[in-house]
Amino acid sequence: MASMDPKAVLEGRVPGRPPVGLILGMTVSGLCAVVALGTDAALGGAGFWVGVLLAILPIPVLIALSLTLDRLEPEPPRALAFSFMWGAGVAVLGALVLNTAGMLYVTVPIFGETEGHFVSAAIGAPIIEETLKGAVLFGMLWFRRNEIDGFADGIMYAAMVGLGFAMMENITYYMRAFEDGGAQQLQAVFILRGLIAPLSHPLFTSMTGLGVAYAATHRRGQIVAPLAGLLGAMVLHGLWNGAAAFGLAGLGVVYLLDFCVLVALIVIVFVERRGTVRRIEAYLPMYGGTGLVTPQDVRMLRSIPSRRAARRWARSVGGAPAARAMVDYQLAATELALLHKRADRGVADQRWFVTRRDSLLELMSLARQAFLRTPPRPGAGLRSGPPWAHQGPSGFLPPRPPGPYGT
């Protein structure tokens, strides 16, 4: 596949073109994160390093758990990384400046010291923080809406933004806990924020992600849906921040509410995944005449376990190159089904649809050819065919050599 960049095709971008906007955004986000960390370091002393360690500690696990929901049609790693960095950089530094200014010049002068802090936490902070976190999602809706194929994508990007923001915010909380109450208070705060409720910010921002995803995949609600999602994020965030004023009862209510939201989001992802599987079964058979897909191949594509088994088989047959070709084939086939989903909903320009369809079919063809050209390992049993096609043909079954009489 030397003449084609599979990643560029799958991500729907121009091959070989430097992602200038992404590079600029990552640079700005990184600089903002450095400034925010520098501010904490200047104020925190030894507690700063304790806060950094504890804040980073659960992040790899949380990212891995989030990515398990995105296995059928994974999002581009560079876009996920940018979303995380936006949350950890631009959103955090902007919130630090605006929250501080709002409390000093608006809420405290108007409501007094005690009530001013409560108003700032329950109303001001949710509005500012969710707007800043949601800005990157609105940017994707404007510049990269074709990358958002459904609610799962909106949730994934929102989760990355929220995890980046939460990591940086937790540094401050852990630092203050260590300085004010020592190891005992630090332990309590870490259990609360790092273990019991580590997904609060991702849950809040997922409301914005749902609204943005709806707007990206439907003709109606282009303005209302994202704004409604942003409002939902602000409300959830405000309830969370304001619950502390009502003691354990208030905290119990918001913990239960967030748990219900988490369950609902997981259900949405799995229901949408089943819808994608149905589209694979509905649309891919129409390309049977190309020789790129057979009914047996469709059965392989429609479930994650069978896809994983196909990749293992490909690796056993031809090593890493064959496995990579199988991955490209599977992802291109899934993107093809999602492309038809956009067309059904009337959000795919006809010219773009044809261009995108042809590039995905070409990638499937080149991936299949790359697999078949890969020298099989000794004893791999390539001629016996893929394990999912014992009862019929497959695009990954090499042509039979002609017999002695040309049959």
Automatic annotation (TrEMBL):
The keyword Transmembrane applies. The chain crosses the membrane at residues 20-39, 45-67, 118-143, 155-175, 195-216, 223-240, 246-271. Residues 374-407 are annotated as: Disordered. The keyword ATP-binding does not apply. Signal peptide: none annotated. It holds the Pfam family PrsW-protease. InterPro entries: PrsW. This is RsiW-degrading membrane proteinase PrsW (M82 family).
